[in-house]
Design goal:
heterodimer, A: about 280 residues, alpha+beta, 7-stranded mixed β-sheet, 7 strands, about 15% strand, B: about 1150 residues, 5-stranded mixed β-sheet, 37 helices, nucleus (chain B), Nrap_D2 (chain B), RNA binding (chain B)
Chain lengths: ~280, ~1150
């Protein structure tokens, strides 16, 4: 008996902020329920195809044992689900780098997550939002049991074995891909450099022989180094003890330093005295 | 002699310089408060040091000439003047206040008046005590009972204050003021010095005084005690009435009128107790053959001289301004070392006399400060052996006994100004050796700039249990009576008037010293404290004394040797050797061809060998002193049980660790010689506690029962079975393998990871090919199954952290930013291997380092703190105990190291001090100084526990993540409460120390023991054991299916819990076989929060009007605890209602 089809007396529970609260429990004989909050996804700035505005449901507080597959199953009762995206924190969609083999995807934190569920039809959203509060969604049923605890860890352990040849294959494909990208990058840079040789008005920048001098590396560290070198050079040229006021200043600084040191000592003693640190027993 | 004087002046010279500036410093200090009033904000806030900020005006105002001089001088003597300031503060703490002095004076006044009104009684027999009324007893053991002579009460002829109070050397705590009450001459008889008549009269006179004073309302509690534990010299203790009763005590000494006895009667060679009187047997011997009674003599003599001593000391101290302060410092120093009280102590009086001696022979000058006086007296003590070359304060060689005569009668000789009394009469040679040892130790660390000398010297208490490596107690002291009989000590017993404990002690000590020989550096014993009894009780018997404790400071190289090699069989010394060891001595032939007498003790493993001194001591005591083994309570390996590994052979893991290290060495060699890798290996380093001997339970080679496991389909590796108990836990031992740098390495983080995976694969292939090990590569590591152990090899590339730090800004600029990922990698591949090898080196220097680490970590685990104080942190903490032991010596047994570890945790002030762990002694004084300054400057942003090492002076990488502030406050309370059970350690249940208190936790998650793979490591051995798929028998070196590695359901469960509920609660668990996870809710998480999409973790919404708040959904969380640990969790027990919001 699917709860969405029968109309209960109880209405959906909507809280200030526009979220609808649904109940979720692990199995039919669980005694306590989690409260998950759902709302249609509505962010104006975001224009991605991954989260179409009218068909995406934003879900809060998804327990750790609900994987993408479980959520997809769970929400299919409101209409066909196109995709599910689970994340640690709400935020805009991010493109990940090059596709990695399963061995190299970093492990995720197994905490509570937020989800973006994309339905195939917009009508499913309203179905979810009108779901009554006291009819809980059930995660693990006899038809589709969800593994937790020992069973899950043993399963994970079995999955962790990597076939050396498969692993090698994954490495090889990635490295080929990587080399290709590197080459493309190098080629692009070369082209750019060639372009720079002659600008729009036909001027050509003349530099010293290419192979001779090494151009300065373009990094923060080297920039800082250069600056330091400059200031050191300047300092060397400066005369420190030339004017009377300079001499006076150094003396002043020295006394200030001594005073500071003395104050530090006094403070240390005062603190220890305050803490009765001088009582030997 | 002249040479010594020279050395003295060169040593003291520079110190001398600092007197003047120090005095000025003092003046400035006193000006301090007035300055602060001028609007400068208070720098010390809630007990935290802050960097000093002075306003520009304050810093740059024109200096006066005076201030300029002061500052300059303070700078040039910085280190010294800080120490000086600290000492001044300390002296203020121990000196008496004016108010208290007034109290004392008025009380002395009233007591003196009372004493003058003692009624006169008529003459009666000495043995007739019927005149004593009101239940007042005589403070003297009247054995033998017979006594001749007459006695009557009479008012004292004089009452004078003597001792430290009039001299001004009296210090807090335990202030006692001495009052000498002179017995009138007509009560005594010139021949009373004989046969205890004078001591008895004195005791009875005291009882008479007590009876008289008991009626007075101006006097509070009255008790009897005896001077420095000498039962022949009873004293009467008076406390003032009312609320001041504990502020000081007045000690009444009864003494003969001046010049009553001739001092020459008490020559140490003379007899004053007749044998026939003492034994009660009639056979009278001629007086010449009677044995001398030096101790009895000096006890009577000691009564006649106090006022002369006071005069002498007053004269000396009036010459030297800092005399009183110097004595006070010396007293503090002695008290911290438990040397200043009890029988044969180095009392404050001796301290004053020592300073007087140094002044009189010009070893110190009159103008020195207290600090210099202390230093020079310690120097004198450290380099002069009074057991061989006694010293005397007497001026001329008149009729007084010679030093040689004193030496024959006493162990330690220090003769008073009169030339008749040895002030160290009761001191044993061992006590003096202990004083010497402490003095030379103090001098060693005093000038070490990396050590806080002041703190170690004067502020740290050194109780015996934390000082000595092994401690043992003699419990039933009655047995010492038989011991005296066995050792034939009648004349000595007579000399000590029946105190068999004191009589036997020197003989037991010398026996043990002979037997232990080179095994110990120092043998110490506790000083029996002065008994204090009510005046209504009989004098305590000798057997009521508390047990005697002995401490051994072991010599690590020799203490654990099982062989005692004696002289060759035909040498004359052989007989002596046989006599010492009795039946244990046997003839043995050694490999070098010698045939000698030898004793062989039992002991195979290190932990058994550590207890060889115990076998030796019980054997010797049984053989020579008739003390049965049941009387000896030996505290040397009390805690070994909790880290025992082997079930058949008792071992605390040293042997197992060695096996692991050997297997690792073999693997490392094989890795080095591998050929066919694209890049060569530049280093192979261990990065696991087992490879530095500090793993609590080192991995043991295992033989697996294959039928117990399931198989993975493709690789045929073993996998756990769902219904069976969790298989045995196999620790992977991390090994870091650095590959050479090369242009071939890509400059991209993901690509590097792929390349490393490729290395793991090829390393695995090569190892299987050449050495037939079972290997399992994975992207992050390579597991190798070898000798029944699993090694986890991780390939590392030294530039990878750098690559992780680099990123390209949108403008195309290469920027380097530190991040957590790079730090973690650097820690795993560089710092941890380095730490492992450094600590491995430390273990080679100190053989018990590993065992202390293991005990400490076992305790942390049992107290559920393992996750907060990580393995590396704990190892470093223990390392600091070995590297900076001041004021102790490096721990010589696991037990003492562990006790000091507990003390460090409970007493170290983490808020204001960095803990500097000087690995390899790379840090100099300047470094430590800089570390401290940097620490204070940025205290707020630094971790709660800050530890600096030579490679990490500013960040404290090991304690960066944990413990956090909350955990620290939680643990802190536990540490302080934990410091108490230590004292029971000697008594009964040591496991109390190990059992965690579960009361403060909110929820307990009970785990099913079947699924806890490390169950057998629990503190309390489990009731049921489970088959975990291992077989007994020899372990194959190579081959076999890959076992289940690093599979512990509890760690998986904890990780999931922390990921999911880390914001709401803290989870505590004992990783060594715990079956309970303790949960503590974070109080902050339970305040209702306004509804926010980012703060909706395991919470439910409560709507009130227009506002929605969220609170943790506790029922659902508890349900989740069950769901997430299905198969592992037995029950979830909520214990408090704190979460009801």
């Amino acid at each position: 008996m699917a709860p969405s089809k029968t109309k209960h007396v109880n209405q959906a529970c909507v809280i200030p902020g526009g979220f609808t609260v649904l109940s979720l429990q692990f199995s039919t004989d669980s005694v306590a329920q989690h409260k998950i909050c759902v709302k249609e996804h509505r962010v104006r700035a975001e224009k991605t195809t991954q989260r179409p505005l009218d068909r995406t449901l934003f879900v809060l507080n998804i327990p750790p044992y609900c994987s993408e597959g479980v959520i997809k199953e769970l929400f299919s009762q409101f209409g066909p689900v196109q995709s599910v995206e689970l994340r640690e924190k709400p935020g805009s969609f991010e493109h990940s780098g090059p596709k990695l083999a399963k061995y190299f995807t970093p492990a995720q934190k197994q905490g509570f997550r937020v989800g973006y569920i994309v339905f195939q039809k917009a009508i499913s959203i309203t179905a979810v939002k009108s779901h009554p509060h006291d009819v809980p969604l059930v995660v693990s049923t006899e038809q589709r049991p969800v593994w937790t605890g020992l069973q899950k860890w043993i399963h994970q352990y079995k999955q962790s074995f990597a076939q050396p040849d498969k692993l090698q294959e994954a490495v090889d494909t990635f490295m080929q891909d990587y080399d290709k990208r590197k080459e493309e990058e190098a080629e692009r840079q070369k082209e750019q450099a060639e372009e720079q040789l002659e600008d729009e008005e036909g001027w050509v920048k003349v530099t010293r022989g290419k192979s001779g001098t090494k151009t300065r590396p373009h990094s923060e560290v080297s920039n800082q180094k250069a600056l330091q070198k400059e200031s050191r050079k300047r300092k060397r040229k400066e005369l420190m003890n030339f004017y009377t006021w300079q001499h006076r200043n150094t003396q002043k600084e020295h006394i200030a330093e001594l005073r500071k040191k003395f104050e530090e000592d006094k403070q240390r003693i005062a603190l220890l005295r305050a803490q009765r640190k001088f009582r030997p027993y | 002699h002249l040479l010594e004087g020279e050395r003295f002046s060169t040593q003291v010279g520079p110190l001398f310089l600092c007197i003047l500036p120090c005095m000025r410093m003092q003046r400035i200090l006193n000006e301090g408060p007035t300055r602060a009033k001028r609007g400068k904000p208070e720098v010390v806030q809630n007990g935290l040091l802050r960097p000093v900020t002075l306003s520009r005006g304050d810093l740059y105002k024109p200096p006066t000439a005076d201030e300029l001089n002061q500052l300059k001088e303070a700078e040039s003597l910085f280190h010294c003047s800080l120490l000086k300031m600290q000492m001044e503060e300390l002296l203020k703490e121990v000196s008496l206040s004016e108010r208290r002095k007034q109290l004392i004076d008025s009380f002395v006044q009233s007591v003196t008046e009372q004493l003058q009104t003692v009624p006169q009684t008529s003459d009666m027999e000495l043995s007739d005590l019927s005149w004593l009324s009101g239940g007042v007893k005589v403070p003297f053991v009247l054995v033998p009972k017979a006594a001749k002579g007459k006695f009557h009460m009479a008012p004292p002829i004089s009452v004078t204050i003597i001792g430290s109070y009039p001299l001004g050397t009296c210090t807090k705590p335990g202030i006692s003021v001495d009052l000498a009450v002179a017995i009138p001459a007509d009560v005594l008889h010139p021949k009373d010095a004989l046969n205890q008549r004078y001591p008895r009269k004195r005791a009875i006179y005291l009882a008479g005084l007590a009876q008289h004073l008991a009626a007075s309302p101006a006097i509070g509690a009255m008790r009897y005690s005896c001077l420095h534990g000498n039962r022949l010299r009873p004293i009467l203790l008076l406390s003032p009435p009312g609320k001041d009763s504990s502020s000081f005590t007045l000690r009444l000494h009864a003494c003969p009128p001046p010049g009553f006895f001739k001092p020459s009667r008490f020559h140490p060679q003379r007899n004053n107790i007749r044998t026939d009187w003492y034994t009660g047997l009639g056979s009278s011997q001629p007086a010449t053959s009677e044995p001398p009674t030096p101790h009895y003599n000096s006890s009577v003599l000691g009564d006649m001289l106090p006022s002369a001593h006071l005069q002498f000391l007053t004269a000396v101290s009036s010459q030297c301004a800092a005399f009183a302060e110097g004595v006070a410092l010396l007293k503090v120093w002695l008290r911290q070392r438990e040397l200043d009280q009890g029988v044969g102590c180095f009392s404050g009086f001796l301290g004053s006399m020592l300073l007087a001696y140094l002044l009189s022979c010009h070893r110190v000058s009159n103008t020195m400060t207290a600090y210099q006086l202390l230093r020079n007296s310690l120097h004198f003590l450290a380099f002069n052996d009074l057991t061989e070359n006694g010293i005397t304060l007497a001026k001329g060689p008149d009729s007084t006994p010679s030093l040689a005569e004193f030496h024959t009668a006493f162990q330690v000789v220090f003769v008073d100004p009169s030339g008749h009394l040895n002030m160290c009469a009761d001191m044993t040679a061992c006590t003096y050796k202990q004083v010497q040892h402490e003095a030379s130790l103090s001098l060693q660390f005093w000038d070490d700039p990396t050590v806080d000398g002041f703190h170690a010297l004067l502020m740290t208490p050194k109780p015996m249990i934390r000082t000595s490596d092994h401690v043992f107690q003699l419990c039933e002291l009655v047995k010492l009576q038989c011991c005296c009989k066995k050792l034939n000590l009648l004349s000595e017993l007579m000399d000590h008037s029946g105190n068999y404990v004191l009589t036997a002690l020197p003989f037991i000590l010398s026996l043990l010293q002979r037997g232990l020989g080179q095994r110990v550096r120092l043998l110490t014993h506790s000083l029996t404290p002065d008994p204090e009894v009510s005046i209504l009780l009989d004098a305590p018997k000798h057997n009521t004394q508390p047990p005697l404790s002995f401490g051994l400071l072991l010599n690590p190289e020799q203490a654990a040797s099982v062989l005692e090699r004696g002289p060759p069989a035909d040498s004359p010394k052989a007989e002596e050797f046989r006599q010492l060891w009795g039946s244990r001595s046997e003839l043995r032939r050694f490999q070098d061809g010698d045939i000698t007498e030898a004793v062989v003790w039992e002991g195979e493993t290190t932990c058994q060998k550590r207890l060889v001194p115990r076998q030796l001591i019980t054997h010797l005591l049984q053989l020579h002193a008739d003390i049965p083994e049941s009387c000896v309570r030996y505290i040397g390996g009390m805690l070994d049980d909790v880290i025992k590994v082997g079930r058949e052979v008792c071992s605390t893991g040293e042997e197992e660790s060695l096996k692991v290290v050997q297997s690792y060495d073999d693997l490392s060699r094989k890795l080095w010689t591998l050929e066919g890798l694209p890049l060569s290996i530049t280093s192979v380093q261990g990065a696991h506690p087992a490879l530095r001997y500090t793993q609590v339970f080192p991995p043991v080679p295992l033989k697996l029962d294959y039928s117990f496991f399931d198989r993975e389909k493709l690789s045929r590796s073993l996998v756990p079975h769902e219904v069976k108990p969790c298989p045995v836990y196999i620790t992977p031992i991390q090994v870091i393998c650095h590959m050479e740098g090369s242009g071939k390495w890509p400059h991209d983080r993901v690509a590097i990871r792929h390349i490393k995976a490729a290395f793991h694969i090829s390393l695995g292939e090569l190892l299987t090919q050449h050495h037939h090990y079972t290997c399992q590569p994975s992207p992050t590591h390579l597991d190798v199954w070898k000798d029944g152990l699993v090694f986890r090899i991780q390939v590392a590339y030294h530039r990878e952290p750098q690559v992780l730090r680099e990123s390209v800004s949108p403008e195309g600029l290469l920027i380097v930013r530190d991040n957590a990922e790079a730090q973690a990698l650097e820690m795993a591949t560089m710092q941890r291997p380095l730490l492992t090898s450094t600590l491995h080196g430390l273990q080679q220097l100190h053989p018990c380092f590993g065992a202390v680490c293991r005990l400490a970590k076992r305790w942390l685990g049992a107290q559920l703190f393992s996750d907060d104080i990580t393995e590396d942190t704990a190892d470093l903490l223990v390392a600091s105990l070995f590297l900076q032991p001041a004021p102790f010596t490096p721990p010589g047994s696991p037990q003492v190291g562990f006790l000091r570890f507990l003390h460090l945790l409970s007493s170290f002030d983490w808020r204001n001090n960095p803990l500097v762990v000087n690995l390899n002694s790379q840090l100099t004084g300047e470094h430590t100084h800089n570390i401290k300054n940097d620490f204070i400057a940025s205290r707020e942003s630094l971790p709660v526990m800050f530890m600096a090492t030579p490679n990490d002076k500013k960040v404290s990488i090991w304690t960066k993540q944990a413990p956090t502030v909350q955990v620290r406050t939680h643990t802190c309370s536990t540490f302080t409460s934990m410091s108490h059970p230590i004292s029971y350690l000697c008594s009964t249940l040591y496991t109390v120390v190990m059992r965690p208190p579960l009361d403060p936790y909110d929820v307990l998650i009970h785990l099913s023991p079947k699924q806890v793979p490390l169950l057998s490591q629990a503190v309390d051995p489990p009731h049921a054991t489970f088959s975990r798929g291992i077989l007994a028998g020899r372990v194959a070196n190579t081959g076999g299916a890959l076992p289940v590695i690093d599979f512990n359901p509890v760690t998986h469960y904890l990780a999931e819990l922390r990921d999911a509920f880390g914001d709401l609660a803290l989870f505590f668990y004992d990783p060594y076989g715990g079956t309970v996870i303790a949960v503590l809710w974070k109080p902050k998480a339970f305040t209702p929060l306004p509804f926010k999409t980012s703060q909706m973790v395991a919470r439910r919404v409560e709507v009130s009007g227009e506002e929605a708040h969220t609170v943790p959904n506790v029922e659902a969380i508890l349900e989740d605890f069950r769901v997430m640990g299905q198969g592992l969790v037995k029950s979830v027990e909520p214990r408090t209602e704190r979460w009801v919001v």
